[in-house]
Design a protein that fits this description.
Structural class: mainly alpha
Number of strands: 3
Distance between the termini: 6 Å
Mean pLDDT: 92
Strand content: 5-15%
Pfam families: DsrE
Low-confidence stretches: none
Protein name: Peroxiredoxin
Length: 118
């Protein structure tokens, strides 16, 4: 669950999700509030460009490469409908493969699984 827009927390969340997928574990990413920006095409690239560049210089995978890996490895990516409205974003702003859903849908899909919040 991505709740904020803190770069380091988002990066850690994407790292954990990618590692789980690499171990053939199912992953459901639900972004709400400012966390929605991490699954938008344009907004995070402006905000996080400098930090991503710093990671690349040190040989660490960037937030956006991780995000693309989650899509490629078929993670289920959901964005909270109210979080989308809260950020002023539209469904058309999201990267491909992201579905808009509410908290009840997330809770139904996450039932019986561990929830980690970033």
């Amino acid at each position: 669950m991505l709740c904020g827009d803190d770069f380091d927390r988002l990066h850690a969340g994407f790292m954990l999700a990618a590692a789980a997928l690499a171990l053939d574990r199912p992953v459901l990413v639900f972004a709400t509030g400012p966390g929605v920006l991490a699954l938008c095409r344009e907004a995070p690239s402006l905000v996080y460009a400098e930090k991503n560049a710093g990671l690349a210089e040190r040989g660490v995978v960037s937030l956006f490469v991780l995000r693309d890996a989650l899509v490629a490895m078929d993670a289920t990516l959901l964005v909270c409908e109210s979080g989308l409205r809260r950020t002023g974003c539209e469904a058309s702003d999201l990267i491909g493969g992201v579905r808009v859903a509410g908290l009840p849908t997330f809770l139904d899909l996450a039932a019986g699984h561990q929830i980690v919040t970033f």
